[in-house]
Every structure is written in C-alpha cells, then in structure tokens.
Write a structure and sequence with these properties.
- The chain has 274 residues and is of the alpha/beta class.
- The protein has a single domain, classed as TIM Barrel, CATH 3.20.20.
- It contains nine helices and ten strands.
- The two termini are 15 Å apart.
- The strands form two sheets. It has an eight-stranded parallel barrel with strand order 1-2-3-4-5-6-7-10, surrounded by four helices. A two-stranded antiparallel ribbon has the order 8-9.
- This is Sugar phosphate isomerase/epimerase.
- Keywords: Isomerase.
- InterPro entries: IolE/XylAMocC-like (IPR050312), Xyl_isomerase-like_sf (IPR036237), Xyl_isomerase-like_TIM-brl (IPR013022).
Length: 274
C-alpha cells in the first residue's frame, strides 16, 4: 500500500512547499482538495494550462504521484446538480492531463426523508453521468462514504442504479464507523467497489464528534489495515486531516510527520504478524 496526504491538512502551504514536504517526509503521493485557497481544481495555479508541464516535472523530480483529485460535487441538491456535473467533467479532464486515476464526488445529504427514493436516484444519475464521461480515459469516479451517504446500505443502493465501469467507492474510514457501522461490515459489503481510502480518526466527547490525530481516536486503524492487507488491497492510504475546515486542529508540521510515522509503523507491524 502507498501513503499520501490530502491538502486539506496544509491549507496555507504553497504548491512548492506541499511537494517539498511530501518528499522530505517520505510520502508516496499527494491527494488534492484545494491548493493556495482555490478549491475548484481546474482553476488552481499549478494546474493552469501554462503551469501543467512544470507541475508534472516537479512531481517527477520528487518521486511523487497525485493519487486523487477531490471535487466538491454533491448530487443531492437539484438546483446545484448541473454545476456539479460541470465541475466533475472538468475535473476528469484535468485528471487525464495529470495522469490521475481517481476523482472524488459526494452523494452527501438526504434533505427530506420522504424523498429518499428521488434523492438516491438523483445521486445515482450524477454518478452515472460522470462515470460515462470518464470511460476510456483512465479515470474512475469515486463516491465517498460521507455525509448521509456514509453507510454501506445507501452506497449500495446508489451503485445498484449505475452501470458504468468507471465508478467506484472511496472508503472514508471514520464516517461509517462513527455512525455505528463496523469496519468489517462496511468492507464486506463494499469491498469489490473500494478503489481508494481516506484515513481519518475521531472520538466522541460528551456526545460530540471531535476530529483528532490518527491513532488518538476511536477508529480501529489496526483492524482496518489488517483487513485491507488480508484482502490484497494495494491502493492508497490517504490521510484526510481537515485543518482547512477545523482551524483548531494541529498544524501540518505536526499532523503530517505524525501520520506517516504512525501508518508506516502499523503497516510494518501487520506485515510482521502476517
């Protein structure tokens, strides 16, 4: 398995700092969710047409890959559906230019429980449209276990309404687990669709979820890594540390060294046990 971090962890770093620090710390790759304040990735400075060649050279020079481009596309809201499709298509085009295998999208919310069927159908439609657009381009569109679409039953319901082979699942470890689903249950139901992962930890404090450094929370990381290793997963373990959205979280100078040390030790430990 390869190790990456998502750029939400370092919202104030320049692209050059991100690349340099990823290399220095020993990461294999970077997952992009905003750069230098720009969240719409086709407009981010390193990915503008005049800068793409230099960006690719920087990555190659430092032995790094971009493992996933994370969009803000959410398909639950009818009034934002077409703009989500537009962002998704433009991000797929960018992924092709950069040689990135995945983009991330959301189902996100169930605003009205009485309209669950219609919302699920709309999310599936958005996912299918982007999947069809991505076919033959070397890009897979990943639906993240996130928001109200965090558990395997609803994810499976959406996937059951799609047919494009360019569709998969991004397993965010924290969301299903902290909403009461065992990691084994999530994996058993979604295993054949899981292409990428987000490693995230949290704990309940007086009934309120608090994000925290990996290993300081309740998410059973060792069990998850063991399951993935036993089932032959060879993809990415990508840290999602939401400093961008939660400014009180640790600075990247703390969180990024802590993560790679933790996950490297855990991977080596599981290899020795197996």
């Amino acid at each position: 398995m390869k190790v990456a971090f998502q750029t939400l962890a370092c919202p104030n770093w320049t692209w050059e700092t991100i690349v340099q620090e990823a290399h220095r710390l020993g990461y294999d790759g970077i997952e992009i969710r905003g750069i230098e304040g720009e969240m719409y990735l086709p407009k981010a400075r390193p990915f503008l047409p005049e800068n793409v060649d230099r960006t690719m050279a920087q990555l190659q020079e430092h032995g790094l890959e971009i493992c996933c481009l994370d969009t803000g596309c959410s398909f639950h809201a009818e009034d934002k559906f077409e703009s989500a499709i537009k962002e998704g298509r433009e991000t797929i085009d960018l992924a092709v230019k950069l040689g990135v295998p995945y983009i991330r999208v959301f189902g996100d919310k169930l605003p009205d429980p009485e309209r669950k069927e219609a919302t699920v159908a709309q999310v599936a439609d958005g996912l299918e449209q982007l999947g069809r657009y991505a076919e033959g381009k070397g890009v897979t569109v990943l639906l993240e276990t996130h928001g109200d679409f965090n558990r395997h039953d609803l994810i499976s319901e959406v996937l059951g309404r799609t047919s494009s082979p360019a569709i998969g699942v991004l397993w965010d470890f924290e969301h299903p687990y902290m909403h009461g689903e065992s990691v084994q249950d999530t994996y058993d139901h979604l295993a054949r669709h899981i292409k990428h992962t987000h490693v995230k930890d949290a704990r309940n404090v007086d009934g309120v979820k608090q994000l925290c450094l990996i290993g300081d929370g309740e998410v059973p990381m060792a069990d998850i890594v063991r399951i993935l290793q036993e089932r032959g997963y060879t993809g990415w373990l990508s840290l999602e540390y939401e400093k961008k959205w939660v400014p009180t979280l640790e600075e990247p100078e703390v969180s990024l060294p802590a993560y790679i040390q933790y996950i490297t030790n855990l991977l080596h430990k599981e290899e020795r046990v197996s």
